[in-house]
Amino acid sequence: MEWDMVLIAISIAAAGYFIGDGLKNFKNPDAKNLMDKLDEGDEHELIKENDVHYFMGISKDDARNLVQDHSDIPHVIINNKVYFPKNKLRKWLIELGE
Questions:
Q1: Separation between Cα atoms, residue 50 and residue 52, nearest integer Å
Q2: What does DSSP assign to residue 80?
Q3: Residue 10, exposed/middle/buried by CB under 10 A (0-12, 13-18, 19+)?
């Protein structure tokens, strides 16, 4: 009985938050939704050359040759190590697929 009341209270609070957030952005259709706000952390995130194969879904050998084979791929070299900006790499992959 006690847990039922706690769950109802949490549900009402969550519903109030989402309804309030929706009303706040009612006349602003370009406002960021909850998922966009969670993805903001990716904006300046860098992926190491050793880990880029996980992100792209390619083999490690292909990942090692990315910069040589595709000179237009967005990358940064810091202290002789290659890093890929996650957000720009995602956009580059989308444009490459079109």
A1: 6
A2: T
A3: exposed
Distance of CA 58 to the CA centre of its chain: 19
Whether the CA torsion 87, 90, 92, 95 is positive or negative: it is negative
Going 98 to 45 to 43 to 33, the CA torsion angle's sign is positive
Q: How many CB atoms lie within 10 A of CB 56?
A: 16
Is residue 76 classed as helix, strand or coil in its secondary structure?
strand
Smallest CA-to-CA distance from 92 within 80, 75, 76, 68 is with: 75
**Sites in the chain below the pLDDT cut of 70:** 1, 25, 29, 31-43
